[in-house]
Design brief:
220 residues, mainly alpha, Endonuclease Iii, domain 2, Endonuclease III, domain 1, 11 helices
Length: 220
């Protein structure tokens, strides 16, 4: 007598979960957007360098006057180091940030004629610019599909079960495989707002989460 093979239960494809997550997060965080204030690719790049280990709110306070004084990459490249340090002091690590901004802008002037490059490989070749920053600039300033894995995206991608990786580059690869390309930039905005408002690092508010029933809550 043949034994009947038990059918393995299949979980819904991760791509299906992503689509449903996007729908629910849009309903909850319809106002999600890039939190850093900027009007040009250069301004966003500067803001992102300043945002390391600093809140977006503080960065926006600092860049309000900074962007009025420094209009282009050449202005930053020729800025006095000690003066720029004082101007960005409140963002923390101000010496390194001022140094990175000057070096980055000097390279933009010398290698790209003063214009922020539009390719990831060119951006990551600049001082103080990593892949996360490059992707955020590409996606937000240049309007092309890109996923920038910041703190919130990294944490929620793992918690929601979209990636088992710790390395941001590998998480980016996993997300690119399941998130529809047209939603890449928007998905990051939604995760960032969800991470700040509901899916907190230490004590997530699962009782009011719009995706509580489809979230594996990994690590919670």
């Amino acid at each position: 007598m043949k034994k009947t093979k038990k059918k393995k239960r299949k979980n819904a494809p991760r791509s299906t979960h992503v689509t449903e997550w996007i729908r629910r997060l849009e309903e909850t965080h319809g106002d999600a957007k890039q939190a850093l204030l900027y009007s040009t690719p250069l301004e966003l790049l500067i803001a992102l360098i300043l945002a390391a280990q600093c809140t977006d709110e503080r960065v926006n306070q600092v860049t309000r006057s900074l962007f009025e004084k420094y209009r282009d990459a050449e202005d930053y490249a020729s800025a006095d180091q000690s003066t720029l340090e004082e101007e960005v002091r409140s963002t923390g690590f101000y010496r390194n940030k001022a140094k990175a901004i000057r070096a980055c802008c000097r390279e933009i002037v010398e290698r790209f004629g003063g214009r922020v490059p539009e390719e990831v490989d060119d951006l990551v070749g600049l001082s103080g610019v990593g892949r996360k920053t490059a992707n955020i600039v590409i996606g937000n300033a240049f309007g092309r599909p890109a996923i920038g894995v910041d703190t919130h995206v990294k944490r929620l991608a793992r918690r929601m079960g979209f990636s088992k990786q710790n390395d941001p580059d590998r998480i980016e690869k996993d997300l690119c495989a399941v998130v529809p390309e047209k939603h890449w930039v928007r998905f990051c905005h939604l995760l960032q707002f969800h991470g700040r408002r509901i899916c907190l690092a230490r004590k997530p508010k699962c009782d009011i989460c719009p995706g509580a029933d489809i979230c594996p809550k990994i690590g919670v």
